[in-house]
Amino acid sequence: MKNRISSAATLALLASALAAPAAGASSTTTTTVHHPAKHAPTTTTTVAKHK
Questions:
Q1: Structural domain count of the chain
Q2: 5 contacts 48 by C-beta, under 8 angstroms
Q3: Mean pLDDT of 13-39
Q4: Helix (H) or strand (E) holding 28
Q5: Which 3 state secondary structure label does DSSP give 48?
Q6: SS3 of 47, please?
Q7: What's the whole-model pTM score?
């Protein structure tokens, strides 16, 4: 279970790292679309880390 959480956290961090520059280069509409997707994994990662 721990490995699975770590993998999810790593993927979430990678997605955020890749999405940030992409969002900056893309239009405002794309940024808006990316935001909810970015917040969900971040919240999950925080909860997983606290456990």
A1: 1
A2: yes
A3: 57
A4: helix 28-50
A5: helix
A6: helix
A7: 0.33
